[in-house]
Amino acid sequence: MKKYINTISGRFLLIFTLIVFSTLSCSKGFLELEPQQAVSMNQALVTAADFRAAITGCYDGLQNSSSYGKFFILVTDVMSDDLKGNAVVNRAADWHSYAGSSSDRSNLAQNIWENYYRIIDRANRILEADTDLDIDDIKGQAYAFRALAYYDLVRIYGQHYTYTADASHMGVPIVTEVDPFQKPARNTVKEVYDQVIEDFTTALGLINDNKNSFYFSQNVIKALLSRVYLYKEDWANAVAMANDVIGSGDYSLVPNADYPTIFSSDHSSESIFEVDMNPVDNLGGGSLASNYLASGYNEYLPTLDLYDTITDGDVRKETMFLEDLSIGGGDFGTLRVYKYTNELGYDNSPVIRLSEVYLTRAEANYHIGTPAAITAAQDDLTLIRQRGLPAAPAVTETGTDLLDEILRERRIELCFEGHRLWDLTRNKMGVYRRDHTSGVSEVPYPDDRFVLAIGLQETEVNDNIIQNPGY
């Protein structure tokens, strides 16, 4: 199975190139003679192998350094209070210092946008193909890819769901059909979330229930839906989806002593969905770890604020950070991020883990607020807290103190996985850096700069795209 993730067949690449050439370079007269796009689609996707190659292209998009290979995770983390720049910073530096633009020096604003819409285009081609083959599982995966792509896009280019009372603020364009000539306008955040939920729900009825964490399955979709509903503040559905995943019995928390193996081995017991990285997929300098390690780009360091948040003796404090006196101390400190240890990018990128699902359920139950829900939230939080530090006391907090503890535990458990900025903004909190090297110590909520600009190349070719405020 793994070979389908790691390589796209030469046949598919050739056909895809021909599709792009024929749809972008033919004359007006030629287009009037026959629906060339539809003909090309049918010619490209004929056999089961063609469809497997096409869905492989979607998985390949998640491995890309503009997605979970690196920058989709890195860029929001450097905008938070969990990372600070080392003496020399290049990659994502504009966003770390809140000076990003539509033409930032790393071109991240454009590259992330392009990569995700490329995934969406690949999914749409599968879903539009006219075939009698039994490919329900592949179509289910295509719906899931389109849902995840839109969810990631709307988070990074649009403000959080409750930024306006009815989520009517700008999201991203919804494109559900293949048309290289369309120039779509931006849909609202509500419309994008509705599309995400619809696509994930459709995928549930089609996809196989496989147990491989490198592939979409019903549990993967339910886990991701629990996150979507949490961000939407649909607390009941967030709990329902989390209950299904936890109750499936397919996953278990990795024991305290084995915690580091979650990020260095394939298919840990709590990995629900991870992006496969191995020597075949070698990102080299494009990997997430390369930005943290001395043998890599050596650009970003963990903040002391995050480190001090973790109780002494907690396995996460003992294993996710590496002391390196050569950093020099002072504002930079002497600690490195050590959650990912392979600069060549062989560490898999976590998309969603069981611990997050427990924390999602805890937060949603807190907001439901009944006595039973509060007890359930305390129990889930205790489970995660004591996995990190078995001697830690059980959670007894209530009221806003309980929410503070949930968000604190999310910060610790999910650090360097791309969650912190969104946890702050969706709770209408700003970014406050106790120790930093960026020159920007605080960004109060709300702020236009909590989302990326849309890349200059996109706005130049599509005059229906409205740029994000502040850019």
| Poorly predicted residue ranges | 1-39
What level of helicity do the residues show? 40-55%
Overall mean pLDDT score? 90
SS-derived structural category: mainly alpha
Describe this structure in words.
With 471 residues, the protein is mainly alpha-helical. Helix content is 47%, strand content 6%. The protein has 19 helices and eight strands. The chain has helices at residues 2-6, 10-25, 28-33, 36-44, 48-63, 71-78, 93-96, 108-128, 136-157, 189-204, 218-232, 235-247, 304-309, 315-319, 354-368, 371-388, 399-413, 420-426, 456-461; strands spanning 83-85, 271-275, 300-302, 321-323, 335-337, 349-353, 431-432, 442-443. The strands form four sheets. A two-stranded antiparallel sheet has the order 1-3. α5 runs parallel beside α9 (136-157). The chain is globular, with a radius of gyration of 22 Å.
Please give the structural blueprint:
Layout: H1 2-6, H2 10-25, H3 28-33, H4 36-44, H5 48-63, H6 71-78, E1 83-85, H7 93-96, H8 108-128, H9 136-157, H10 189-204, H11 218-232, H12 235-247, E2 271-275, E3 300-302, H13 304-309, H14 315-319, E4 321-323, E5 335-337, E6 349-353, H15 354-368, H16 371-388, H17 399-413, H18 420-426, E7 431-432, E8 442-443, H19 456-461
Antiparallel strand pairs: 1-3, 2-6, 4-5, 7-8
Helix pairs in contact: 2-4, 5-8, 5-9, 8-9, 9-10, 10-11, 11-12, 11-15, 12-15, 15-16, 15-17, 16-17
How would you sum up this structure in a few lines?
The chain has 471 residues and is mainly alpha-helical. The chain contains 19 helices and 8 strands.
Q: What tags apply to this protein structure?
A:
globular, mainly alpha, 471 residues, two-stranded antiparallel ribbon, single chain
